[in-house]
Amino acid sequence: MPRGKRTIRKIIIHHSASPTSTTVEDIDRWHKARGWSGIGYHYVCLQDGTIENGRPVNKRGAHTLNHNGDSIGICVTGNFQDYHCPKPRFDKLMKFVNELLQTHNLSWDHVYYHKQFSNTACCGHFLIEQLKQYLKSRRGTC
Questions:
Q1: How far apart are CA 61 and CA 65, in angstroms?
Q2: Packing angle between helix 87-103 and helix 125-138, nearest 10 degrees?
Q3: Contacting residues for 134 by C-beta, under 8 A, at least 6 apart
């Protein structure tokens, strides 16, 4: 395997548990304050559904303990313990996830939310329910 390349086996969805107006720069600053080298997520889905780059994909993430080496972390700004992700935004997120799946030769069976790996509320009750419904309809497909 070429230097700097990582084998991606999963995509893990998170939420910022902060206002939807949160920026990549905000998250980067918070993670640096924790002593990290910078933002731990590879991508951030902003309030309007725009996907912004975080940590380079070829660099190990810092988003899910014991699963950072072979995963891509995507953070959706907002606190989905309190409300659903609006459908247009959710649809943009799922379109982007589908592109990642194709790029890394994965299926929808390789998409997870943080709570599946840790005792956490992430990515929020309402977004987890949306993801469960969506993934249920996609499992076993590319």
A1: 10
A2: 50
A3: 90, 94
Are 77 and 123 spatial neighbours (Cβ–Cβ below 8 Å)?
no
Query: What are the distances in angstroms from CA 101 to CA 52, 80, 98?
Result: 17, 24, 5
Lowest mean pLDDT among 3-7, 11-15, 107-111, 138-142: 138-142
Report d(CA 94, CA 133) in Å as an integer. 12
**Neighbour tally for 139: CB within 10 Å:** 11
Please say whether the dihedral angle defined by the alpha carbons of residues 111, 76, 128 and 113, taken in this order, is positive or negative.
positive
For all residues of the chain together, what is the average pLDDT? 94
- Which pLDDT score, from 0 to 100, does residue 109 have? 94
